Amino acid sequence: LIGVLGTIAVWVDVVISKPAGRNLGFVWMFAGIVFYYAYRKRQEISATSRVELEKMEIPEYKEQPITKILVPTRGENFNTVQYAAKVAHSHGASLTALYVIEIPASLPLDTFFPDRLLKADTVIESSQAICREYGIPAKTLVLQSRSAGQAIYETARDGGYDLIILGTSLESPSRIGSRLGSALGSAVSVSSFLGSTVDYVLKRAPCRVWICAEEPRK
Questions:
Q1: Residues 128, 140: contact at Cβ < 8 Å?
Q2: What is the pLDDT of residues 6-57, one digit of tens each?
Q3: 167 bridge partner residues
């Protein structure tokens, strides 16, 4: 109310004390009214009628429910886990946090790495704590695999998940620009910018995949 009264007071002051502003203002208002009526007439719309937008219906569209969410995490940034917990909470879905320990091809797949397993336990516990904040009883998985992408794909396929939420660290704009410049004239793969794990999952995933961008790599 105070703002409306103040605006009216300023307008009255300009009209009374500023001849140039008064004349220009009235001309501007008149021009606006003329253009309004001209536009309505060109569109064959009554000047006093209301325009209603027609709702479009897509018969073949069916909303796909979200019931099981898989969120791989490396522990570098928990924003993806937090986002996944929000999605699971809003859809009433179950959530599984997955940590993959990659084993080099030169070593047996069951090679024991105490330091990596300790980090995996720490990351999983942090993920569970985040999920508890949203009232989500998260399941957890720690797997050893040759490839993180393959482990994510196989877990999603065998577990019947309908959504994978992946986090990826995008490169800084300067590095993206230089990479595009060097790749000019040739095909640019997804792995060049999102990483080989995301590229692998996107090409083979048996369900929907959402990508969450994290802090850019410098």
A1: yes
A2: 887 877 777 777 777 677 777 878 888 888 888 888 877 777 777 777 777 7
A3: 212
3-state secondary structure the chain: CHHHHHHHHHHHHHHHHCHHHHHHHHHHHHHHHHHHHHHHHHCCCCCCCCCCCCCCCCCCCCCCCCCEEEEECCCCCCHHHHHHHHHHHHHCCEEEEEEEEECCCCCCCCCCCHHHHHHHHHHHHHHHHHHHHCCCCCEEEEEEECCHHHHHHHHHHHHCCCEEEEEEEEECHHHHHHHHHHCCCCCCCCHHHHCHHHHHHHHHCCCEEEEEEEEEEC
Query: What is the distance between the alpha carbons of residues 112 and 93, in angstroms, rounded to a whole number?
Result: 33
Backbone angles phi, psi at 113, to 5 degrees: -120, 100
For 187, the token pair is 């095909």
Burial of 136 (0-12, 13-18, 19+ CB in 10 A): buried
**What are 140's two structure tokens?**
């957890």
| pTM of this structure | 0.63
